[in-house]
Design goal:
67 residues, mainly alpha, elongated
């Protein structure tokens, strides 16, 4: 590892202090919330709603697969 000068070390310490203040949530809580939000918004999303895509002349006729 290269030698760090005083400014680099101070920046690293400041960054870590900031990161410690961030409230974190478990993914077991956030993932179901994200899935629920995504499912609620699917009807409004033109990339996921085929009915909204019919008016777009630049849409490819192929199918899209989401992983």
């Amino acid at each position: 590892m290269e030698e760090w000068d005083e400014i680099q070390m101070k920046n690293e310490v400041d960054s870590r202090k900031y990161q410690l203040q961030i409230t974190r949530e478990k993914s077991s809580v956030t993932i179901p919330e994200l899935v629920k939000w995504t499912e609620e918004k699917m009807a409004e999303d033109p990339l996921l709603n085929a009915e909204m895509m019919r008016d777009n002349p630049w849409v490819d006729s192929g199918k899209c697969v989401l992983l």
